[in-house]
């Protein structure tokens, strides 16, 4: 789960990591009221969306006098920001963060991430802060420092000193940095985060370290024990079809292709997407209806697939293990009658009671094709729905 910058900064502050004074605003009037309350020489108006790269897209603006706050808030609120992380359709700004402007001496990059390869928590840092780290990694990989923290030992001050020296921090702030990184590590592990990125972490002209931006990602499997983090969930920022799917325990991820895929089991779902690609098509989604799929799950899954206007064909690929194919066939027959399927449908059933399921489909009188193998099914659905983009 992702959270907003203003929420991430609340968490950082709880763990004693310095952040600028500021609060969230939902309206222009609130933005002005907060700016007056802050009474800072410079006020910063920041779009709150679940994506980075806002500055370059015009979503972060500095007001040098307080009467500029109102027009800036008016400009950014409701604007559609297109950044490398939003996709081409962009994201509408519904919330702002109004905070004090900080006098920047230098911008650093600092992040913590779960590193599966080394089974540790990696600290990634760079003197080249402010800009996207992917860009630094591509052009100046030597300017990125990595220090791995073994979670069984935990954070030790030497980790902090190693990063501080690599960043070339002035001697006077090394201790402050060692403490800051320790607090960040404590927060990371205590809150079951999977990523915490501070870009930039700034050294102010008066030699203080402040987190100017914050992006956090949490392990969904740990959310049950973090009520406070769960409260940060913002459904405005999530894909509506994914929310609907999660309400029905369906694992659904929307993609930008045209072939809707309905599959049981995550591995088979991945393989199905590969095979659709191999056949020259592109999947509109990843959808795992789960091992215990019922008629109702299948109906709901059809509803979700058909709600995506890009879908030009549906490929159902089911392997009956625990789930029985005749039940799935029943679900498909019911669902296509109810949902009124306006696009071609190809079904491949294999495993438990597959023959019975196929017979039911063939005699249903519905406009669908039954495929004998996954490869045949993928080729048929691509042929029936056309290859071009939607
Ligand atoms: P994004 O990464 O989405 O572009 P940031 O929060 O990193 O958004 O803001 C972009 C840039 O704006 C920062 O690198 C920094 O230079 C400047 N900035 C952001 N917040 C402040 C602030 N409170 N005071 C001064 N400058 C700021
Ligand atoms: Mg940033």
Brief overview:
The protein contains 13 helices and 18 strands.
Bound molecules: adenosine-5'-diphosphate, magnesium ion
Number of domains: 3
Q: State the share of residues found in helices, binned by percent.
A: 25-40%
CATH class of the largest domain: Alpha Beta
Helix/strand/pairing category: alpha+beta
What's the pLDDT, averaged over the residues? Answer: 94
What's the multimeric state? Answer: single chain
Number of helices: 13
Strand content: 15-25%
CATH superfamily caption of the largest domain? ATP-grasp fold, B domain
The coarse overall form would be elongated
> Any guess at the CATH architecture of the largest domain?
2-Layer Sandwich
Ranges with pLDDT <50 over ≥5 residues?
Answer: none
First and last CA, distance: 29 Å
Sheet with the most strands?
A: 6 strands, antiparallel
The CATH topology of the largest domain is what? Answer: D-amino Acid Aminotransferase, Chain A, domain 1
Rg, nearest Å: 25 Å
Would you kindly provide a written description of the structure presented here, covering whatever features stand out?
The protein has 390 residues and is of the alpha+beta class. The chain has 3 domains: 1-20 and 103-238, ATP-grasp fold, B domain (D-amino Acid Aminotransferase, Chain A, domain 1), CATH 3.30.470; 21-101, Dna Ligase, domain 1; 239-384, Succinyl-CoA synthetase domains (Rossmann fold, 3-Layer(aba) Sandwich). The chain is 36% helix and 25% strand. The chain is built from 13 helices and 18 strands. Strands 7, 8, 9, 10, 11 and 12 form a 6-stranded antiparallel sheet that branches. A 4-stranded antiparallel sheet has the order 1-6-2-3, covered by helices on one side. A 4-stranded parallel sheet has the order 14-16-17-18, sandwiched between helices. A hairpin with a 4-residue loop joins strand 7 and strand 8. The longest helix is centred in the middle third of the chain and has 20 residues, at 171-190. The chain is elongated. It starts with a helix and ends in a 5-residue tail after the last helix. 41% of the residues are buried. The model has no long low-confidence stretch (mean pLDDT 94). Bound molecules: adenosine-5'-diphosphate and magnesium ion. Adenosine-5'-diphosphate is lined by residues 20, 44, 46, 52-55, 60, 99, 101-102, 104, 107, 130, 199-200, 212-213.
């Amino acid at each position: 789960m992702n959270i907003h910058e203003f929420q991430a900064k609340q968490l950082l502050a709880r763990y004693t990591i310095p952040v600028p004074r500021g609060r969230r605003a939902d309206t222009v009037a609130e933005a002005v009221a907060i700016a007056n309350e802050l009474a800072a020489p410079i006020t910063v108006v920041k779009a709150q969306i679940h994506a980075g790269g806002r500055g370059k897209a015009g979503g972060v603006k500095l007001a040098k006098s307080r009467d500029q706050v109102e027009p800036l808030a008016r400009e950014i609120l409701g604007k559609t920001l297109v950044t490398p992380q939003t996709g081409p359709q962009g994201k509408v700004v519904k919330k702002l963060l109004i905070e004090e402007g900080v006098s920047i001496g230098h911008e650093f990059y600092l992040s913590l991430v779960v590193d599966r390869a080394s089974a540790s928590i990696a600290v990634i840092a760079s003197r080249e802060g402010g800009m996207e780290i992917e860009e630094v990694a591509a052009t100046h990989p030597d300017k990125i420092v990595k220090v791995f923290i073994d979670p069984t030992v935990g954070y030790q001050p030497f980790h902090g000193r190693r990063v501080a020296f690599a960043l070339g921090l002035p001697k006077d702030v090394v201790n402050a940095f060692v403490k800051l990184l320790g607090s960040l590590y404590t927060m990371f592990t205590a809150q079951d985060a999977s990523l915490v990125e501070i870009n930039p972490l700034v050294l102010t002209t008066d030699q203080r370290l402040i987190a100017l931006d914050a992006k956090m990602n949490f392990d969904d499997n740990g959310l049950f024990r973090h009520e406070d983090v769960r409260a940060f969930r913002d459904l405005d920022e999530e894909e509506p079809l994914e929310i609907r799917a999660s309400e029905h325990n369906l694992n659904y991820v929307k993609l930008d292709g045209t072939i809707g895929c309905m599959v049981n089991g995550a591995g088979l779902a991945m393989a199905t997407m590969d095979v659709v690609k191999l056949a020259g098509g592109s999947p509109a989604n990843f959808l795992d209806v789960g091992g215990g799929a019922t008629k109702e799950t299948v109906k709901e899954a059809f509803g979700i697939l058909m709600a995506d206007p890009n879908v030009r064909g549906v490929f159902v690929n089911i392997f009956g293990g625990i789930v029985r194919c005749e039940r799935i066939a029943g679900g498909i027959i019911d669902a296509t009658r109810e949902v009124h399927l306006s696009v071609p449908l190809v079904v491949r059933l294999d495993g438990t009671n597959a023959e019975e399921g196929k017979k039911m489909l063939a005699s249903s009188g519905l406009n669908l094709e039954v495929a004998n193998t996954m490869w045949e099914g993928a080729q048929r659905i691509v042929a029936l729905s056309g290859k071009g983009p939607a």
